[in-house]
Amino acid sequence: MKRVVCFGEIMMRLNPKGYLRFVQAKEFEATFSGGEANVAVALSNYGLNSAYVTKVPAHEIGQCAVNELRRFGVDVSGIVRGGKRLGTYYVEKGASQRASKVIYDRADSAIALVEPGEFDWEKLLAGADWFHTTGITPALGDQATKATLDAVKTAKKLGVTVSCDLNYRKNLWSKEKAKEVMTEVIEYVDVVIANEEDAYDVFGIKAEGSDVTKGEISHEGYISVAKTLVEKYNLQKAAITLRTSLSASDNLWSAMLYDGKEAYFAPEYKVHIVDRVGGGDSFGSGLIYSLLSGYNNQKALNFAVAASCLKHSIEHDFNLMSVAEVEALAGGDASGRVQR
Amino acid sequence: MKRVVCFGEIMMRLNPKGYLRFVQAKEFEATFSGGEANVAVALSNYGLNSAYVTKVPAHEIGQCAVNELRRFGVDVSGIVRGGKRLGTYYVEKGASQRASKVIYDRADSAIALVEPGEFDWEKLLAGADWFHTTGITPALGDQATKATLDAVKTAKKLGVTVSCDLNYRKNLWSKEKAKEVMTEVIEYVDVVIANEEDAYDVFGIKAEGSDVTKGEISHEGYISVAKTLVEKYNLQKAAITLRTSLSASDNLWSAMLYDGKEAYFAPEYKVHIVDRVGGGDSFGSGLIYSLLSGYNNQKALNFAVAASCLKHSIEHDFNLMSVAEVEALAGGDASGRVQR
Amino acid sequence: MKRVVCFGEIMMRLNPKGYLRFVQAKEFEATFSGGEANVAVALSNYGLNSAYVTKVPAHEIGQCAVNELRRFGVDVSGIVRGGKRLGTYYVEKGASQRASKVIYDRADSAIALVEPGEFDWEKLLAGADWFHTTGITPALGDQATKATLDAVKTAKKLGVTVSCDLNYRKNLWSKEKAKEVMTEVIEYVDVVIANEEDAYDVFGIKAEGSDVTKGEISHEGYISVAKTLVEKYNLQKAAITLRTSLSASDNLWSAMLYDGKEAYFAPEYKVHIVDRVGGGDSFGSGLIYSLLSGYNNQKALNFAVAASCLKHSIEHDFNLMSVAEVEALAGGDASGRVQR
Amino acid sequence: MKRVVCFGEIMMRLNPKGYLRFVQAKEFEATFSGGEANVAVALSNYGLNSAYVTKVPAHEIGQCAVNELRRFGVDVSGIVRGGKRLGTYYVEKGASQRASKVIYDRADSAIALVEPGEFDWEKLLAGADWFHTTGITPALGDQATKATLDAVKTAKKLGVTVSCDLNYRKNLWSKEKAKEVMTEVIEYVDVVIANEEDAYDVFGIKAEGSDVTKGEISHEGYISVAKTLVEKYNLQKAAITLRTSLSASDNLWSAMLYDGKEAYFAPEYKVHIVDRVGGGDSFGSGLIYSLLSGYNNQKALNFAVAASCLKHSIEHDFNLMSVAEVEALAGGDASGRVQR
Amino acid sequence: MKRVVCFGEIMMRLNPKGYLRFVQAKEFEATFSGGEANVAVALSNYGLNSAYVTKVPAHEIGQCAVNELRRFGVDVSGIVRGGKRLGTYYVEKGASQRASKVIYDRADSAIALVEPGEFDWEKLLAGADWFHTTGITPALGDQATKATLDAVKTAKKLGVTVSCDLNYRKNLWSKEKAKEVMTEVIEYVDVVIANEEDAYDVFGIKAEGSDVTKGEISHEGYISVAKTLVEKYNLQKAAITLRTSLSASDNLWSAMLYDGKEAYFAPEYKVHIVDRVGGGDSFGSGLIYSLLSGYNNQKALNFAVAASCLKHSIEHDFNLMSVAEVEALAGGDASGRVQR
Amino acid sequence: MKRVVCFGEIMMRLNPKGYLRFVQAKEFEATFSGGEANVAVALSNYGLNSAYVTKVPAHEIGQCAVNELRRFGVDVSGIVRGGKRLGTYYVEKGASQRASKVIYDRADSAIALVEPGEFDWEKLLAGADWFHTTGITPALGDQATKATLDAVKTAKKLGVTVSCDLNYRKNLWSKEKAKEVMTEVIEYVDVVIANEEDAYDVFGIKAEGSDVTKGEISHEGYISVAKTLVEKYNLQKAAITLRTSLSASDNLWSAMLYDGKEAYFAPEYKVHIVDRVGGGDSFGSGLIYSLLSGYNNQKALNFAVAASCLKHSIEHDFNLMSVAEVEALAGGDASGRVQR
Question: Could you tell me how many helices (H) and strands (E) chain F has, helices first?
Fold first, then answer.
């Protein structure tokens, strides 16, 4: 069984029930997630040996986060306990023309203030086939940046494939700071995942002729972005997700993959959204699973897009689809007929 | 007031709230239903004298099932108490490309293990105008098959119109067994209800040129299926429901009716789905009601399709629309404007 | 900060959760609303000094209504306490072809039986820039009619702009009675808000060539209705909302405004509905806000339509969108992309 | 099977969840009850042929009330449909020193405004063994008083045993009016149920040496009250419930019965309260059941007190204990050990 | 109407439903509270003109806190908007021998990082009769300490009575730091509220012969503590709450008051606990209300103890009892009988 | 870290919310438990290396059970997947004099029909320090008996300490059958846990002078039962739990331990019950933990009783107290004071 190690934050996600706005809420559903944690859970769910590395407080709320990972089979033996708080974020689900909203309360979380030496990467990455992190983790601050660099360097040294989802977060750092740090991180990365905005925000790479808010997407533009990424940073592969937001309730969803030679495009799905958060992460986990399983590029991309298409129909951040369910959609059955 | 007697199982249905997957559920909504029970409730709701015959355990969970039928006005005096368990099934609601899932836990239910002589059909069917059952009931096992045959034979003898929804369930029996048993049952049936797959699965009757998963529906194909059913089994009428599953969230829905001479097709509705389970049963009850009310074939079919179209907008299995509400849609008002 | 005084009823709204029908409900969500109260809350939410005038019982359920207004910042100092009951209404949310239903239980509410002299309008309207009421309030009975007339007369005398949403309610009074009373009320009104049916039901004014249930809307017809209203009743402005009900789940929504010289039409939105009740009121509050803010007619209308478009995505009656959120949609971003 | 007919109102009961105060509630649990309806449900639950006579509106909320009675097996064929509203009341559950609160909103309910001739008592009471009503029903107004008198007179004529729970409600009528009406009603009553306050409030009969709010209860005082009732009004039996309210969470509970010759006292239970509303009604239904079942006076009283003791542990108004469960407690097992 | 200004933090309180432990929770009830906010709400509820001064973030979660205060009638015009986060705390309700748990996540909240000059105390306290804060606010950090000192000094200057609940929080500061800061704060205080532990933890004042964990309480000990406080810090009054924790479900509760001359003791209540958090604050608000209302010392103390006794029966932190309800208990009716 | 392997069933537990009776439930809380699973979870929670061995269906409901064990850190690698159904049971929580009820629906569960060779006990028990099972497992049927005997024999062979909770279930087998099977099982057992009824029901051993339903407990009687067990079956230790059921809401709880030489009695606690199910199992896990931790007999017993006392305050079957929390109570602090 292939082993994947993911590294990043795990936060408490609080959202009002259904479509209530924040100011209408009297109670919040509490789940636990984070860009890399979402990947770890999906990979465990696909049947891989999936481990998560992070730091959470020693109190019961920290324990809840650990428990949620364990519940879905993630190896939590590499999680350090300590620090003062668990990062938190609030999600208000949009509908029709009303956009979803996310409010972050994640400053000074345990993982953001991780101290040097708290993670023994040689040990944590022993036996791993793949290491995954995102641009969110170094954005948490200098201490988290240091830990991220330690991780990718060790992975590189041990011959572990490294993937990184750029995931630019404007609330966490400036574009300038992001470019400076990520330029160092990407040196150790093999597979980059991004959306068009990320590539521009972090590295200043922009596709010609596209306007995301207008829903204008040019295949050539995406190819040029992916090609630039792969060539400039000496990557094995770059994958870009393609979202057209028709409304908060309906999106078009697809992605492309470039392997240094050829560009592959997946079919586009029209998704009726149950919960859009975690959509990008579910693409990442789908891609890691399918590449680790030896699928060819087109099939791997199709699996990843089908997986993330299905994620949009699931509440909360984790993608809890099985391989068989994803394969069924990737194989062409989008009818949603009752399975008895 | 016309009296209809329905016979079959009543199960506990457990479903997670909203769109949660099974593995996310911490609580289940509990309702009670079954293919024939759904018909009995709808008919009571339409104002008919509707009775349900089944067997449930003497304990409180069995009582809950009885109570739910009573709540909607069904005559439960013919329900036998005993046996060890109530059949149970779990429903996970799908959305967009994610299909709904049903897990059955119904083996050895009270009705499946009903013993000879527990139902006094002469008495139960006295004064009845119509008797309804489905292909699910004999599929529960030899004892239930025996009871079903006793019922339809007695109904025939007493001149009660008999309808049967083929409802093939692959988890309950093989196609071979189904064909063997249903060939005997159908001898006593006047009106058959089916979808295209049922006719094929049970009797090997297949329409040419249709591929359900591809949403290709040919009117001629359906006519040929219905005609074959009516002629081969000497029926008064055969009705076939026509579903095109665009996704788990949106379906096209219609039906056709063949009376041995002519074929009738209802208008097709695009339904935005709240709960799809029980959709077929709501067609059956709509048809029984409208035929018993003396509607002509086209009007009867239109009523049944409008009724089942509306069922898709209702949570859980029972169709709780009134005659007036169904008539309004059948009459052409699909605008869904607020009724004050 | 501009001050707006709204006058009318506030009721308890009870609705089953999600899409449950009344007969399936074991609990009701309890919120508080009313045509004019919905306007008062939205205006407070937009940042205006918004006051509500009504009468509610002195018991705790009456207090709940007051508390809900306070919660959203409405000035409740003009609310009189007394009377025996709070009006109540029940809402069942429709979906697809199934229409929403509203059952009223509002007779003999505190405000319907308000006694002469209970409201000191000179004091209540001192310093106000705008006064708003609807055709529902005088429909509550003779005592409420008297209070409404006192209010609009005083407003006129004090130079306060007066708006009235016609809002014909067939359960409260006949068309004849409505015409008689509203003909007196409109004498003191500056801005009228209506839908096409209201103008016909109350004043017998009908657009040529329109059939609302068929979704046929003619721009010329609306202009003629608005023009007739403005000219016949000497108004400053008449606004008419334009709804095409595709189903209970999807509507088209727009509006037009006529200022005595020119007619303005807003863009039309396709809304996927979360809760349709309060949609008209949210147009009214959007219009009052934008006119009070000095927007030109086209921009004011566009703001009001965008505001009410967004209301359809919010649970319960109050429109809880901020000015910035409405402006974003009015400015053209209907993509519903996640706001982080 | 003995047949009992109960007559009175059925209301919607709305209560916040758990121990929330009214002003904290965002949703209400909705059940249906009423002093006599509670008796009808308990008797059906005990296995008797129990019918309820009332009037409810034709709309869906009225239907909910009918459905709730049907759910528990009550014969609802005598319920008249019509009128404008269903009476409603709000319950806030107290705890410790904080008292429970009830707010009534029941004026002008369908049953309060019942019109002459709407109930055909000869038919409704045909075949009945017992008729039960309470002092609440005539208190609803002159029309309800008329119907009550019609009912008890017909019952008397037909030889049906008549019971009446005095149940004085100060919000519905004055003591003077109550005395006037109830003096006429009691002429036709065989068995009276009361608490000490009722006898005083309605008929001015007061026990010496008791102060209910101080929890001082004298056996002799109760005997004198019961004796006065029986002798003055020529009754077969008078039963008085004895409650000592230690707090809203804990009560002492017992009762006495006088049959014109001897006084019987039941054991006293200390009850830890789940829901106290309906406690008195559960005594009444226990007494009717046990007397109809031919128990001797002491055993009948003990059954009634055990039944109502157990009611205090059940949410909402209906007493849903089985005969076997009540017998177990009456037989001395108060240990509450798990029944597997 | 007397005006009271309270100053401190307002936090989001998150608690699992019922008696679930943190690690069992899938959702949290969200309310808003804080030691001084609880006092402000209770005083508004008692009918006083109550204002709250604090700082909350400009985002929607901050708005929720403001809305909750407005809902209960608190004047929020003195609340500053800004800063990055709202303090949060988690409450797990105990039962029987299992203690309740509180986890704080309040560092770096908006109010803790308030900047000099953000509060204009001269304006905020204009027209005030009373100012209330607690030892929690200065414990939030140097900036909050500075603001607290500014407030109490201005209050003193303007002749506003100042009360302070010592409320020592060991997670926020050391005893040494507390003593240093509170020694400066108390210089401006007129009325101190404390429990025995507070006086010892903050000022090193300990009663002889008491052991709180053993439930041994000596009246003389409390008098000596109160006397020491009043004399040493030149106070008008010192009040000490007396809690005996029999278990997490049952407590004994009382208090004493010393006015420099005489010591008063209130009756002791045995409380069956619904929610214990906010118990101390409800004593403070009761005392402020009764003293401002001119009650004599004994009556004021009795009111405060009755008020806080009742708080223990209410969910969440706010004491939502009316003056009449508190007076009823203080007047001796602890029977908890249903109020209809 | 000590390793404990537990073997038995894991079922889905369905219970109505709060104190609702089964017939009132519209939804059920769904948790997963079983006598031995409860022990495995508690031991994992105490920090031991705890593994669970069972068989569950391969479908999602089976996965939910596995997930719940993983969530609390239990090693699930020894769980076999297959079979047709997961055992289910329903719990109705009692209160005051109303007893809790349990309805089992566990026949033909995956573990009951486990086939020979499905468990490789040599491998499963390698490295284990302790093996625990109960009398429920062999009661599931001959196949489960066979697996149980295989397990205890292998444990004995490998020198693993074996404990068994007698746990007689009258619904599963007769006393005769129980005696026959358990007499074989106990041959391999080192530590027996029981309540007085179990010893009598399974082995016919009865204490003189005790009547459990009357709450009469004689220390000498328990010593004689324990002594008989130890001597007759050559045990190391026998522990007996002592419950006095005052009501469904309040119990007295203690236990005794006999080690072949001396008898130890723990302090008795009065527990106010939140959820009584799983109380016995929590004693077992407390005892295993404390004995494995090298506590002396008295201290071990005290720990076990304190642990199970606290379990009664926790919802559902699992005991989720930490070692520190148990130690605090065992150390004498039963005050339940808030832990901040």
Answer: 11, 15
Largest CA-CA distance found in chain E, in angstroms, rounded? 54
For residue B23, give every residue at least 6 positions away whose Cβ sits within 8 Å of its Cβ, in sequence order, or none.
A72, A320, F60, F63, F64, F67
B 45-84 residues inside an 8 A Cβ radius of D: 67-68, 70-73
Under 8 Å between Cβ of C28 and C57: no
Q: E163-192 burial, b if ≥16 CB within 10 A, otherwise e?
A: bbbbbbbeebbeeeebeebbeebbebbbbb
Structure tokens at E95: 């039962």
Q: What is the pLDDT of residue F309?
A: 98
Is the pLDDT score of A210 beyond 70?
Answer: no
| A217: confidence class by pLDDT, cuts 50, 70, 90 | low
Instruction: Quote the tokens at residue B174.
Output: 């093989």
Contacting residues of E for C67, CB less than 8 Å apart: 71-73
To the nearest whole number, what is the mean pLDDT of chain D? 96
Residue E180: per-residue pLDDT = 97
Chain D positions touching B71 (Cβ under 8 A) are 67-68, 70-71
**CA distances (Å), origin D185, targets D175, D284, E228:** 15, 18, 69
A183 touches F: beta carbon within 8 Å: no
State the amino acid at position B257 in one-letter form.
Answer: L
> Touching E: which chains, 3+ CB pairs < 8 A?
A, C, D, F
Task: Please provide the DSSP assignment of A202-221 as one string.
Answer: HH----TT-BGGGTB--HHH
- B269–C contact, CB cutoff 8 A: yes
The model's pTM is: 0.96
Q: Which chain B residues contact residue F61 at CB under 8 A?
A: 22, 90, 103, 105
> How close, in Å, is residue E315 to chain D by CA atoms?
6
> Phi and psi dihedrals of B42, rounded to 5?
-60, -40
Q: A326 vs chain B: nearest CA distance in angstroms? A: 9
List the single residue in A269, A316, A338 with the smallest CB-CB distance to B97: A269
Residue-wise pLDDT tens digits, B257-305: 999 999 999 999 999 999 999 999 999 999 999 999 999 999 999 999 9
* A271, A274, A329 ranked by CB distance to B19: nearest: A274
d(CA C57, CA C198): 31
Q: Report chain B residues whose CB lies below 8 A from the CB of A316.
A: 24
Termini Cα distance of chain E: 30
Cβ-nearest to B269 among C97, C171, C215? C97
Which member of E27, E61, E108 has the closest CB to residue A27?
E27
pLDDT at position E208 over 80: no
Averaged pLDDT score across all residues of chain F:
96
Token pair in block for residue A169? 């977060």
Is the predicted pLDDT of residue C216 greater than 70, yes or no? Answer: no
Contact D22 C61 (CB under 8 A): yes
Contacts of residue E120, Cβ cutoff 8 Å, sequence gap at least 6: none
Q: Dump pLDDT digits (tens) for E28-48.
A: 999 999 999 999 999 999 999
A320 vs B23: CB contact, 8 Å cut-off?
yes
Contact A232, A240 (CB under 8 A): no
Cβ neighbors of C146 (< 8 A, separation 6 or more) are: C116
Q: Report the residue of chain F nearest D273, measured CA to CA.
A: F96
pLDDT in tens, B210-230: 665 555 568 899 999 999 999
- Residues D178 and F329: their CA atoms lie apart, in Å, by 58
Cα–Cα distance measured from residue C8 to residue C37, given in angstroms and rounded to the nearest whole number: 7
Please count the CA atoms within 13 angstroms of the CA of C55 that sit on its side-chain side. 24
Contact F298, F256 (CB under 8 A): no
pLDDT tens digit string along C273-303?
A: 999 999 999 999 999 999 999 999 999 999 9
CB atoms D88 and C105 under 8 Å: yes
User: Which residues contact residue A181 at a Cβ distance below 8 angstroms, ignoring those fewer than 6 apart?
Assistant: A138, A139, A145, A173
